[in-house]
Design brief:
290 residues; 8% strand; alpha+beta; three-stranded antiparallel β-sheet
């Protein structure tokens, strides 16, 4: 005889031993009594909500809020329509997006763009949990529709339904062209265009794409190039080591990105996700030794 399925209301496990069938649910942080619609213990975050009972479920408004683990009301997360991005499809997207760049003297390589987008959280539907503290309305390969949460405004027109993969690539290409235009100007203003290797340019693009902080990187790299031009290679190597550490700190909470940055600077090679993870492990071991 098959065992009865235990996970029902809100996907939480029933506890039928004491109060009978379906009357008690384990939410993790506390137990919920379905007969009265209340928790049986205080909300662990009760001081965050002094205006309501610490025993209520979803702020007494289960239509507008959820109470995922019994730790206070939360707004439900808008589900994402995801698209699976394999290494092969990432390469095709990168090539397609790169082919749309026009009239720019210098631009990131297809391989560099592939590395950048392979770690993006691709979504074909609009969402507003993009990793930033405030949360911005975002779609596709991290394309920001507007600052702040989804609000149904004019800028979201036509995005209520999921977009196609081709739409996502078009948005990506537009973002690449805009970001690369900014980066190209910064590189030219510092007279670095003929001094940077392709992997150094790709790293600068990745920094601009993810952090908007390519300027400081270019300033530091420019000083290193000047040292190399004057034959001061030992000093240049030390500066490059410091620059590597600085770059890795520009990706807070993104350890995978730190590995990419290290690989770009130290080896000038692009590798795979697997080799990037290995790079991250090395960084972690070095940090522990310190």
């Amino acid at each position: 005889m098959m065992n009865e399925y235990r996970f029902t209301f809100n996907g939480m496990e029933k506890d039928d031993e004491v109060k009978g069938n379906g009357n008690s649910y384990d939410f993790g942080a506390r137990i919920h009594d379905s007969r009265i619609g209340r928790f049986l213990s205080l909300d662990p975050r009760k001081f965050d909500f002094p205006f309501m009972s610490p025993y209520c479920f979803a702020a007494n408004n289960p239509i507008a809020f959820i109470d995922e683990y019994g730790e206070g009301p939360q707004k439900p997360k808008r589900p994402k329509t995801r698209a699976v991005l394999t290494p092969f499809s990432a390469s095709l997207v990168a090539q397609q997006a790169t082919s749309k760049l026009r009239g720019q003297m210098r631009y990131p390589s297809s391989q560099g763009i592939e590395m950048t987008i392979s770690f993006e959280d691709l979504s074909l539907s609009l969402y507003d949990v993009d990793g930033s503290r405030k949360g911005n309305a975002t779609i596709g390969f991290g394309h920001k529709v507007h600052d702040g949460a989804i609000n149904g405004g004019a800028s979201e027109k036509g995005l209520k339904k999921p977009i196609t993969m081709n739409d996502a690539v078009e948005l990506l290409a537009a973002d690449i062209e805009s970001i690369n235009g900014t980066l190209s100007n910064r590189v030219n203003n510092r007279k670095l265009s003929n001094k940077m290797t392709q992997n150094e340019y790709d790293l600068a693009f990745d920094l601009e794409f993810n952090t908007g902080n390519s300027g400081r990187y270019l300033d530091k790299l420019g000083k290193i190039k000047d040292l190399e031009a004057n034959g001061k290679t030992t000093k240049a190597d030390k500066k490059m080591s410091k620059l590597t550490n600085w770059v890795s700190r520009q990706y807070p909470g993104r350890d995978k990105k730190r590995g990419i940055a290290r690989a770009y600077l130290n080896e000038g090679t692009y590798g795979t996700k697997e080799t990037t993870f290995e790079e991250v492990e090395i960084i972690g071991k070095k940090s522990k030794k310190k």
